[in-house]
Amino acid sequence: MNNGTRPLQFPEGFLWGVGTSAYQVEGDSINTQWYEFENGGRIKTGDRSGKAADWWKNAEQDFDIAQSMGLNSLRLSVSWARIEPEEGVFNPEAIERYRQMLAALIERNIRPMVCLHHFSHPVWFEKKGAFLSKSCVEDFGRFVKFTVTELYDLCSDWITFNEPNVYALEGYLEGDHPPAKAGHPLLYFKALGNMGRCHAAAYYTIHKLQHDAMVSFTNHFIIFTEIKNHMFDRLAARIASDSFNNVFINMITGKKVPLLNNLLGNCEHVRDTWDFVGVNIYGGADVSFDITKPGMAFVRRIEPKGKPTGDLDPGGKAMFGEIYPQGIAIVVDKLAKHDKPFFILENGVPDREDKLRPWVIAKAARTMYDLIQKGYDVIGYHHWTLVDNFEWALGYSMKFGLVEMDPVTQQRKPRPSASFYSEIAKANALTPAMVKKYLPEALDEIFPEDKDQK
Ligand code: BGC
After folding, report:
1. Is 239 in contact with 297 (CB distance < 8 Å)?
2. Which stretches of 108-229 are DSSP H helices?
3. Which of 17, 33, 218, 220 could bridge 73 with an S-S bond, Cβ 3.0-4.6 Å?
């Protein structure tokens, strides 16, 4: 019998937060390439982002929720298109609104983290070719310098890019995000190489302005596993990891991968431009080698059967394969040799009914606790996300929020997971009593050490 007595206590100052992004929550994000994409009818559900979660007008209502949950950290992104709506022309009102938001977080004892690029950017930048253009380092750099100069008295944690690997994958291989070019591996690598150089330049600019800043990017990791222990399937898992998980990381750590490095261009300058490792992780995928898929580097992803997936997307697919919070341990263990702290910056599940989310939260917490016990430096966790929001090309169909949000009425209703996560954040611990309350069926899985105690 599991009596459940021992809490998993986290180190003092551990950061419990949520991740969000400008386009997904602010509303009326005109002037961005995503707005044009929506208006071109490219959202699979036909939705429009519209008011989103209304943050441009009233982010504070959700900051109140975050505060009442006891969260002490929150990542938002700033919209480049609002700050520099025309090339070289900055909008002081946009900066003023972001200053209000950051101040509102600080007032609520929530430490802000600002991401400078989360998938969306100005139409003028897209027209120039975005991160394929020759001037991208200069353009992104001008925006970063201006923005950080205006905000650094209110924030010291910066993310240059959210998931450059997803941005490039969706834009140039899968074609589900702007500029919607499917099957262009050369453009995929070119964009990543340029984003690496943009990131490095931004890293140095920010440190010049603010010596004690914590600057990094956040990478999306998928745990790829060969479907069979067979040479070719193992190769497929390796290719998938090298070409998706590792490209940006390799630029930063200076690891050279033959062939891939030639596609990325000169990355010497990019080396060691991170103060922590930002980890976004949702799922794992079994893969096999498939000779009929040269456009996807011969990698076939297998749909997970009988595994936890969360809600399927409107096309009947599991967006993230198997939901795999325990993969946090694989990523941390692999990258620990670089001697940087880890910040888990996205982890979650699309789950309208909140069936799987409590398990995701508990499993992530258990995994991080075990890592910390083993001596790994994990400093925080951001659940994705606070309130349901605009899920890019899938519109409002996928519900990632701890809090349910109706985009029409703007009404909020916390899901049980919000209370569960709040209890963890307030106690800075995961306890057996919490798991008993929110997830009784997983008590032995989450607290195996208590299992046989009477
Ligand atoms: C992105 C978020 C997105 C989430 C869920 C991440 O890849 O950074 O913007 O909403 O996944 O799909």
Report:
1. yes
2. 123-127, 136-151, 164-169, 185-209
3. 17
pLDDT at 381: 99
Q: CA torsion sign, 434 to 349 to 166 to 325?
A: positive
Question: What's the confidence (pLDDT) of residue 452?
Answer: 65
Which residue stretches of the chain have pLDDT < 70?
A: 1-5, 452-454
Of ligand 1's listed atoms, the one at least distance from the Cα of 389 is: 10
* Radius of gyration of the CA atoms of the chain, in A: 21
Rounded to whole angstroms, the Cα distance separating 229 from 237 reads 11
Q: Rounded to the nearest whole angstrom, what is the distance from the C-alpha of residue 400 to the centroid of ligand 1?
A: 9
Domain 9-222+244-280+320-415 has CATH 3.20.20.80: yes
Per-residue pLDDT, 177 = 98
Total count of residues recorded for the chain: 454
Q: Where are the alpha helices (DSSP H) in 109-169?
A: 123-127, 136-151, 164-169
pLDDT at 453: 62
DSSP tag of 89:
B
Q: Shortest CA distance to 131 belongs to which of 45, 56, 33, 27? A: 33
Q: Which residues, other chains included, contact 211 with Cβ-Cβ below 8 Å and sequence gap of 6+?
A: none
Output the average pLDDT for the chain.
96
3-state helix, strand, coil in the chain (%, to 5): 45, 20, 40
Q: Where are the domains of the chain?
A: 9-222+244-280+320-415
| Nearest atom of ligand 1 to the alpha carbon of 391 | 10
Mutate to test the pocket of ligand 1, among 79, 384, 392, 402 (most ligand atoms within 8 A of CB): 384
